[in-house]
Amino acid sequence: MHELHAEDLSLSAIARELGVAKSTVSRWAKEDNLSFDRSQTADAVAAKSIDLAAGRQRLAEKMLAASEAMLDRIDDPYLVYNFGGKDNDYKEHELESAPVEVRRNVITTAAITFDKLSRIVERDPDVSGAQSVVQSLEAGILAAADILRAPETEITEEA
């Protein structure tokens, strides 16, 4: 074990190499006053934490976009349909806007999204998470504005 430890192998690697449990290697190391460099473990934990935070950020942005899209369409015409009858006929009808229960679900979804995003901001005292969401939204809006302005520019240049 001393030779493997001298090669800077991790506790797990030594246990695998010797075919014993990690607890056994840990006990032997303690008995021999040997310690393991945990900087790689700390780096791995930090990297995983950053990856998870980035994942939460992406999910928050998707939740926000989905909620906004639903709210934007809440007053649009709403198609209702049904299969039924002895011939299993398909029938549809377009309503002027979504029914009350659908509107309630959309508003509840938006409220839950708002609550979850607010918790992210509260948990992050420097609000970098919120700033990132806002910056992403700003970038998206600016990109959309650029796309919408492009035809105007082309027409002006041709004239």
UniProtKB/TrEMBL annotation:
Residues 3-27 form the Transposase IS30-like HTH domain. It comes from Leucobacter viscericola. This is Helix-turn-helix domain-containing protein.
